[in-house]
């Protein structure tokens, strides 16, 4: 929850015009000041430049919300006929992107990815897998959702070869990655070694966000 307060302070300028009093030994007279020429005010009136100022304060309280991983990409490889020998396939399409929402937490965070084995989906409960397959995410781009975002962007590896271990794909060092950032891969490659069988294979990529521990 955000609280905002505003304080307005107006400073007025006081202008004073006094009468000139002159005295002589013989008698006392009160005379008006000699008239000035137009455009040349007398006294302080010709030099004062009245101003006013406004003070504005706003309080941004720390949010109770955590850093969250909102979306993830969908990756599809176009079907092809199996051949003898190693096959290198490029992605048919990558839809959506990875999005991280950070409500101003400056401790940093990291995002990792791991991939499970490609299982044959064409046969129910099949234990057949795409043996030795290696998938690489390529041409990484990290951008802020707000083009005027004032925070330094997170960093990440240009290309990431996935396996069963968590691989770093995006890291926000302390003081960076505030706001909403998107991680996009323009391409992906699937390397299939020789010796596999035909089938319709599928797998799951697991993306994990970890907040950096707070400093003492």
What report would you give on this structure?
The chain is mostly beta strands and 216 residues long. It has a domain at 68-211. The chain has no helices and 15 strands. It has strands at 21-23, 28-30, 68-71, 74-76, 87-90, 93-95, 98-102, 109-115, 119-120, 134-144, 160-162, 167-172, 179-192, 201-202, 205-211. The strands form 5 sheets. Strands 3, 5, 7, 10, 11 and 13 form a 6-stranded antiparallel β-sheet that branches. Strands 12-8-15 form a 3-stranded antiparallel β-sheet, with no helix packed on it. The chain is elongated and about 90 Å long. Residues 1-30 have low confidence and may be disordered.
Descriptive keywords:
mainly beta; disordered N terminus; single chain; 6-stranded antiparallel beta sheet; 3-stranded antiparallel beta sheet; 216 residues
- Rg value: 36 Å
Task: Kindly estimate the percentage of residues that lie in beta strands according to DSSP.
Answer: 35-45%
- Overall mean pLDDT stands at 79
Number of helices: 0
Can you tell me the overall shape? elongated
Low-confidence residue ranges: 1-30
Number of strands: 15
Give the helix/strand class. mainly beta
Helix content: under 10%
- Most strands sheet: 6 strands, antiparallel
SSE succession: EEEEEEEEEEEEEEE
- State the end-to-end distance: 25 Å
């Amino acid at each position: 929850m955000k609280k905002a307060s505003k304080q307005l302070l107006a400073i007025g300028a006081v202008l004073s015009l006094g009468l000139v009093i002159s005295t002589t030994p013989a008698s006392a007279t009160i005379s008006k000041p000699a008239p000035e020429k137009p455009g040349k005010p007398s006294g302080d009136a010709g030099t004062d430049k009245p101003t006013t100022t406004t003070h504005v304060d706003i309080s941004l309280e720390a949010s109770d919300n955590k850093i969250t991983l909102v979306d993830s990409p969908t990756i599809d490889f176009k079907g092809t006929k199996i051949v003898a020998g190693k096959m290198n396939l490029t992605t048919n399409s990558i839809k959506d992107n990875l999005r991280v929402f950070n409500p101003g937490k400056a401790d940093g965070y990291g995002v990792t990815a791991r991939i499970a084995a490609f299982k044959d989906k064409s046969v129910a409960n099949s234990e057949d897998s795409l043996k030795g397959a290696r998938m690489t995410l390529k041409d990484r781009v990290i951008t802020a959702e707000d083009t005027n975002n004032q925070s330094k962007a997170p960093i990440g590896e240009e290309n990431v070869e996935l396996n069963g271990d968590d691989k770093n794909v995006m890291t926000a060092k302390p003081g960076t990655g505030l706001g909403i950032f998107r991680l996009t891969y323009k391409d992906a490659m699937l390397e299939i070694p020789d010796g596999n069988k035909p089938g319709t294979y599928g797998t799951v990529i697991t993306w994990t966000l970890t907040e950096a521990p707070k400093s003492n």
